Amino acid sequence: MQPPERSYIIWFSQRTGSTLLAAALHNTRLEGTRQGGVPGEHLNGQNPATFTLSDLHALWQSGTGGGGLFAMKYGPSRNMADWTEAFRRVLELPQHASAPEVWNTTFPNCRHVFVTRRNRVRLAVSWWRAIVSGEWHRALDSESPAPDIADRYDFAAIDHLFAESALREATIEDFFAAADAVPLTVVYEDFIRDYAGTVARVLDHLGLERPATLPPPAFGQMADALSEEWAQRFRSERQAGWDNPAW
Length: 247
Prior knowledge:
The chain has one domain: 3-Layer(aba) Sandwich (Rossmann fold), CATH 3.40.50. Helix content is 45%, strand content 11%. The chain is built from 9 helices and 6 strands, in the order E-H-E-E-H-E-H-H-E-H-H-E-H-H-H. Strands 4-1-5-6 form a 4-stranded parallel sheet, sandwiched between helices. A two-stranded antiparallel sheet has the order 2-3. A hairpin with a 2-residue loop joins strand 2 (29-30) and strand 3 (33-34). The model has no long low-confidence stretch (mean pLDDT 94).
């Protein structure tokens, strides 16, 4: 299988609306055809140490939609360098090729979308809630009650996720700087306030036509009174003893 002619990657840390955006792009149709590719987390569940050329061909196929556009959603963790070396190995690229050169060869003519969230405290709380509840997304029309996790607050866990989200985004920015790439940045707080406008901007950035009607959101907001209670508790405990609290 030949590499795709065009690609895009949605780069994200957890709980930034990346799945909501990926669903919107996947469900966008033009003249009945999905044009936004299949932006799934195609590297999940794969081992870079045993990754083969056949695996790469399968990855290209799984992420490519009817218009020949490859799409992927990727939240880097400690193994991003391992993936760079896996792609280098299976494509037989020279050792002097930089990480951006390796990724650009693997995903040609790639455009980048960076999904982030301003309030990192609420990000960390949302991440921990998803971990302990097992509920990562909720369908927009779901009537199921939220899991009862009121007693699962954990300062140390939320503090870890607070820091980890920052480090993951630092990894992403390091890649953009090395690649001299200017991504389209989608901010979660703006996205949920202006869903249609945000999806339209992303389509423009990707060079895709806007359909007459955009797909409705696939998921509903999960934050509730418990989320806010945990955010305010973490805010207080994280700054305990500070002479000049920031928030």
